[in-house]
Amino acid sequence: MDNIARKENIRSGFQSDIEGIRKRARERVEDGAVTGGYEADRDSVIEMLNGALATELVCVLRYKHNFYMATGIEAQAAAQEFLEHATEEQGHVDMLAARIVQLGGEPNFSPDGLKGRSHSEYVAARSLPEMIREKLVAERIAIDSYREMIQYLGGADPTTRRVLENILAVEEEHADDLAGLLDKGLHR
């Protein structure tokens, strides 16, 4: 559409084929929220989201482990940060599982193969500095993974893209928090 035609459409106001939308809404009702206008490969998106779900589950487990295992004079502040992050990661789990169900899939919570489905590794760090570094590495993996997923989706699934963008923003905040702990000297 050229600029002149686009401007004419803007001047004439938004118009929609309401009758067509109504007709299409009655087709394949069993697909729930996924209408004929859904442009992504649903099976690929569900598989991708299950990988993200596994990653978030591993993150929850790692943060909880570190919350309970953090010891030493400087550990209290880090432990509280770990607990806060574990709670936020659990929220990501819930968001991803809900979206998988909306797309007609089944969230994979099975512990069998969880390690293989997760993008990040589960490293049971022992010292506080190691915990912080491993957490930061995991957050950086999540950040790049979510960016790739968002790019893959483009405009084909704006709802899933928004879910992933919201999670990405929190993951970036987590990485910033952990880098701040390193800056405070908790890396020695």
User: SSE string, helix = H, strand = E?
Assistant: HHHHHHH
Largest sheet: none
**Strand content bin:** under 5%
Low-confidence stretches: none
Count, helices: 7
The radius of gyration is 21 Å
What does this structure look like?
The structure is a single chain. This protein is an all-alpha fold. Helices cover 71% and strands 0% of the residues. It has 7 helices and no strands. It has helices at 3-12, 18-25, 42-69, 75-102, 114-117, 128-153, 158-186. Helix 3 (42-69) packs antiparallel against helix 6 and helix 6 runs antiparallel to helix 7 (158-186). The longest helix has 29 residues, at 158-186. The chain is elongated.
Comma- or semicolon-separated keywords:
188 residues; mainly alpha; 7 helices; 71% helix
Give the SSE map.
Elements: H1 3-12, H2 18-25, H3 42-69, H4 75-102, H5 114-117, H6 128-153, H7 158-186
Helix pairs in contact: 3-4, 3-6, 4-7, 6-7
Characterize this entry briefly:
The protein has 188 residues and is an all-alpha fold.
